[in-house]
Write a structure and sequence with these properties.
Chain lengths: ~425, ~425, ~425
């Protein structure tokens, strides 16, 4: 005596499973970022950077529950939303899945934006400053951009396309990181008196590589999950394939460019090339062909190598390359929608319209993030202090901020 | 010429995919525990602890195949089951999925219970003693508790609620670990003559943090997968969100409590706070609101900080905090069902009944586990020896038990 | 006003979700191999081995897009396929899922075959040689074997059964690794003048164990995903259970055999025992019972212990045991289909026919791989050089090939 199940129940189940499982994958990017950032920084700061990675996601979880989701998806105006604070009075379903499933998927995106900044500001930022910043970013700064593009706001209305967040997520995180790195200033010893950079190598290449691979894995949730539906078989397959091809192309091209420039295939730049490819394809993955994805990822690989050099030339110290990977390559990927979109892209006879809207979007998000994050960092700087003391920076933030030695059984040579 | 597919076939497929994919996530908690425990112990014992983590899951796999599943889900009485040994004569389906899928999901839970003990007994337990113990726990001690609650036994009949195993899994593992730690006694050098504890820091904070994040990730299988059905979209979304919020609240509150007590935001306690939040929400996740989940997780964060101090005061040496995280916070979470259950909870006008049954359940499971695991450890102690020799403990169990150096390329300072 | 969804749309969605999610799991085996291989080699070569693991997957991605898929699944003859180069003119669906989803699943298998070789040839292979080799293997050598068995070619036609690739994937990777290890010769210092082997321990047991667990996790995609359909609930449950039981049995038996031979339960051999169990069950997992799976995995555990000794006796230096795990145990697992297949197996009254076809298949794939990979390595050797210089090998490939120190904050003792 079987109870018949309606096709609506079935598609809701399929969509919910898909959204939740991909949300779990995006959550898993948190240890990806943690291992990548820890591996690319020094052993004396590793406990601090791990703790920041943990706590920014925790702060994001509560902040996005209380405020962030309301500003992003609440009923509001062109600029921000204004209902559903503390998940109150939410609809049972949103986009065809239970609203709580939708919320979790959106939360892990907010957490990603927050965590990107940790890398750019690593090895010198006060822990309590970081806690405040990450809460504000995930609860206010990011959700408002999200509202503009995905929550019914003005950029989405204009036709701005950012499928999974090259600009919404990676741009916001990357530009905020740039503002933070500029306001903090470089780490002690990063630049010589003549302005030339000292390499400060990360303490563990295996951790960094593990983090990179975990991020790539998580991106299979980030991009394909952004369909928000498991029923669109063709689309999610295309998004998954495009994501992978762009990452591969980004890594290969970054390796080749670095090889030509320095005579060696650089491991760190190759890893960042893969990530740059992933960031670049995040906006266009649903709208472009596999071949276009390879080109987009490859250009991302070029962008990251030159972006790292550029930051060094202007003496902005970004220890892990977060700004080139997320901000610069995210910018490129967002514009690439205007070039490679299979109907509205310039290269496909779609004219300049899409490219124009994409340009407007990246400028607007850059302006908003630079303004708000910059203001926030300056307020923190003068209110409680943004940067640790010189003594603490020399001894390491692990000791100064947390009274911990991350590797007590090893003779760590970077300890002050 | 399409062959029509019945809705029963479709829902079976959806449920099976869900159960298997979440089982895979729960399996992945094995390296989570391995990395967490390895990171929180010394470099001279790391190969041993990793080997224990590997082999307990292997022993569980065969033990749960031969005996455990039969005792837990076999046809039996109020106390234990008694059919399906060696997976013989099993039904084609159980709970709407192929019995083998159901079995795998149950196995990874048994493996989790077994592996929890490794942490509490780390750095001094003989390897062959550990092999025996983990087989008995996963094949007999745990399955009988499982039968009481989930397999048709007396606790379930009384209305005891433990959705995903705060008591069934984490309680059994945690209380067994407590018995083991008590019977073993503390590690050499852990307590001074005046009884005050010496901190023995773990050798790698990055490994520990990686393990914590992997466990959090795996918990998205542990709790949402315990619906055993992918068709209950609303429920699995709620469980996933509650799980995440409790973890975040546990970490934040543990950090704040430690900060107030010691002046520093402690990394290890924050990690354990997240895990305590996860353990606490495991029983109630399907029955409570997101706000309640935050409270339950937050209290878990308090429990773990004071639990660690308490164990040190009574000189029980639990190197990784497994007892506070799994036993104490699991106890709290199980009782919390009686407080926060949206219909039967005390705070929701449900009266004292649910809380009473929950209390009975935790007492019964504590008594059973303490009695059986305690007896087992004492038998092992006198039959083959539970603890390694003083010399071996000083030199490290890696050398003594496995003739291996886990880090031969580094000058490890903890080596004897 | 619900739009009715056809059952074909639903089953396509379920199958696509299943194929993609399991493909993501198989992708995740890449960091599994990376961590395993890095952990089992020396600190001075770890950046190089990680870079190889990254780049072989990137090269595979582009190579399998351009050529590999066409040779494997293109319309062709008994020997190879010949359409779909660069994913051009592909059908909308293949095996009931979007062709791009099918492609991604096949790509991650090709990437697995390619990455296996890195281990056998570790610590002495030139990076640029590796790049060329991994492209040719994933774009030509592997796809042609794949065509024979899975793409409509002659071995599949004869009834050769290899469900998820004990021979197609692990055999090709393992035999190619053997040819590479033979042609390269042993690492400096591996064999004494009297021919007895020097142990060269890997630099990090935790990394290796993490890699092993990640591989086991990924295998839940590798084998169950090879159904290519989420609708076959009973089959995927059986495959998942068999996979897990074989791994557990392999680890336990390898541990016991090593224990009997050396007096200690060896960590590295136990890990390789689990992997050998996984490789062995990969071919038969869909055709055999759980009990047979335990036997097949257990024999895999024996094979790997004796296989490691055998290679040392013939002075073939395989730093991580890739050949015993993938080639020898893959050979065993493929033959085991002929013994344990529930209808056509010798032990089930099916006669010698299946075993004969299985034997023919493993011989053919060995011959093809030995010939083509051997030729490739010899060409590379004389054209650009297969092995680094003695000086570079002593200093470490990290410095020589990439100008990097993977652990700059630690005093690494293996550095030249």
């Amino acid at each position: 005596m079987e109870v018949p199940v309606s096709s609506a129940e079935i598609t809701t189940a399929i969509d919910t499973i898909w959204v939740l499982l991909t949300a779990f994958l995006v959550f898993f990017m948190q240890p990806g970022f943690a291992m990548l950032t820890a591996g690319l920084t020094r052993a004396k700061n590793v406990g601090n950077i791990l703790m920041k990675n943990l706590m920014d996601f925790c702060m994001s979880s509560l902040g996005y529950w209380a405020v962030g989701f309301a500003l992003m998806y609440g009923v509001g105006n062109f600029f921000l939303g204004g209902s559903f604070f503390f998940l109150r009075d939410i609809a049972e379903e949103t986009s065809g899945v239970p609203t709580l499933a939708f919320w979790l998927f959106q939360l892990v995106f907010a957490g990603t934006a927050a965590t990107i900044v940790a890398g750019a500001m690593a090895e010198r930022t006060r822990f309590r400053a970081y806690l405040i910043y990450s809460l504000v970013l995930s609860a206010v700064i990011y959700p408002i951009v999200g509202h503009w593009v995905w929550g019914g706001g003005w950029l989405g209305e204009l036709g701005f396309l950012d499928f999974a967040g090259s600009t919404v997520v990676h741009g916001v995180g990357g530009w905020a990181g740039l503002m933070g790195a500029v306001i903090l200033g470089p780490r002690l010893g990063k630049y010589r008196d003549d302005g030339s950079p000292n390499a400060i190598p990360g303490h563990s290449l295996p951790l960094a590589m593990l983090g990179m691979f975990v991020l790539w894995f998580g991106w299979f949730g980030f991009n394909p999950g952004s369909t928000l539906s498991g029923m669109q078989a063709g689309l999610i397959a295309k998004v998954a394939v495009n994501t992978n091809l762009a990452a591969a192309a980004g890594a290969i091209v970054a390796m080749l460019v670095a090889w030509l420039r320095t005579g060696k295939p650089d491991v760190g730049l190759s890893m960042n090339g893969a990530l740059a490819g992933l960031v670049a394809i995040t906006a266009p993955c649903a709208f472009v062909s596999p071949l276009s994805s390879i080109i987009i990822g490859a250009v991302g690989g070029v962008v990251v190598v030159y972006g790292v050099s550029f930051l060094d030339r202007v003496r902005v110290d970004d220890p892990v390359g977060a700004v080139p990977v997320h901000a610069f390559s995210g910018l490129w990927g967002t514009l690439a929608v205007g070039l490679f979109h299979e109907t509205s892209g310039l290269f496909y006879g779609g004219g300049w319209g899409q490219l124009g809207v994409q340009s407007l979007g990246v400028v607007a998000v850059f302006a908003w993030t630079a303004l708000t994050a910059g203001t926030l960092f300056v307020i923190i700087k003068y209110a409680i202090g943004l940067r640790v003391s010189r003594e603490e920076e020399k001894m390491g933030l692990d000791y100064g901020e947390h009274a911990v030695n991350s590797y007590p059984d090893f003779g760590v040579t970077s300890l002050g």
